[in-house]
TrEMBL record:
<feature type="signal peptide">
    <location>
        <begin position="1"/>
        <end position="20"/>
    </location>
</feature>
<dbReference type="InterPro" id="IPR036866">
    <property type="entry name" value="RibonucZ/Hydroxyglut_hydro"/>
</dbReference>
<dbReference type="InterPro" id="IPR050114">
    <property type="entry name" value="UPF0173_UPF0282_UlaG_hydrolase"/>
</dbReference>
<keyword id="KW-0732">Signal</keyword>
<dbReference type="Pfam" id="PF13483">
    <property type="entry name" value="Lactamase_B_3"/>
</dbReference>
<protein>
    <submittedName>
        <fullName>L-ascorbate metabolism protein UlaG, beta-lactamase superfamily</fullName>
    </submittedName>
</protein>
């Protein structure tokens, strides 16, 4: 009985240590990647094409003509949150003029609003989760054009139509697990960006509303919380492949991988075994028609 009590006490101590390690607010500049010549964002004069650039981790810029949408900004690091091998292509000060910014969830590595505050155009449309704390925090950082969309509500920005929808219909906006995803319609193409997870019921609803999806950007690291019985937080290779099987996109771009925690969180809190290579292999093994394209940070993929 004493052994069990001691084990329980150690688990509580460990849990608090991991929690405070993860929540520490000591922001530092994330390392920049030395991108290959011609890969960094320069824009394209071809207004009929769409350009996807992975800035780092789950941060991407989708460009269509003069329109540029930044999704899930994460530009800094702090204890237990490191970009690892997936270093950044640019800093906030190097960002191009943006037509809009969108965040899928109120998590630091998807909504680095304190670092993003260095972006000078504070009137840029900022799409956040309705009912969450994101709007208040963004206003405190000086942003003035914050948009909260209802489930499956759309907004037109330039030549882009952006639709926001819930990942998990069972979660409340105040929940840590509450997430949104985005459909971007532009230049005759439909793109889907998934932040962490899409429940199967949501996938079916998306398929009914958008029967022809050209590009999906999907998490693949299979992020799980060890202390909570390996609770899954993000798609793994198999989950991402199942979504491709249901939605039948032409192209899939893996995101949300190479994240590194601290020694403490990596050892006791986080589990993430999914890789973009495993995702591509799973798609091949299932003989799906979707083409998986693994991009380096800073690489421009023109579709």
């Amino acid at each position: 009985m004493k052994v069990l009590s001691l084990s329980g006490l150690l688990l509580i101590i460990l849990s608090f240590s991991v929690y405070f390690d993860s929540c520490a607010q000591k922001f530092t500049t994330a390392p920049l990647r030395k991108c290959k010549a011609g890969t960094i964002i320069e824009g394209t004069s071809d207004t009929s094409s769409i350009q996807v650039t992975r800035v780092g981790y789950a941060t991407v810029i989708i460009s269509s003509g003069k329109d540029k949408l930044l999704i899930d900004p994460w530009f800094s690091e702090k204890p237990a949150y490191y970009h690892g091998e997936d270093s950044l292509a640019m800093t906030v000060s190097q960002l191009p003029h943006l037509s809009a910014i969108a965040s899928t969830q109120d998590h630091y590595d998807h909504f680095d609003i304190h670092t993003l505050a260095a972006y000078p155009e504070k009137d840029v449309p900022l799409l956040v989760c309705a009912g969450s704390k994101q709007k208040k925090v963004a206003e405190e950082e000086g942003f003035t054009n914050i948009v909260e969309l209802a489930n499956f509500e759309s907004i037109r920005i330039g030549g882009m139509k952006i639709t926001s929808f819930e990942s998990k219909s069972s979660e409340k906006p105040s929940s840590f697990d509450y997430e949104r995803n985005y459909i971007i319609e532009t230049n005759g193409k439909v793109l889907l960006y998934v932040g962490h997870i899409m429940q199967e019921s949501v996938q079916r609803a998306v398929r009914a509303r958008f029967p022809a999806i050209d590009v999906v950007l999907l998490p693949v690291n299979d992020l799980r919380i060890k202390l909570n019985l390996n609770e899954q937080k993000a798609f793994g290779p198999d989950d991402a492949a199942k979504l491709c099987e249901m939605l039948r996109p032409t192209v899939a771009i893996p995101v949300h991988y190479n994240f590194k925690g601290s020694w403490l969180t990596n050892t006791f809190l986080l589990k993430q075994k999914g890789t973009p290579e495993k995702f591509a292999q799973t798609v091949r093994e299932r003989k799906l028609t979707t083409k998986v394209i693994i991009t380096e940070t800073g690489q421009n993929l023109i579709l």
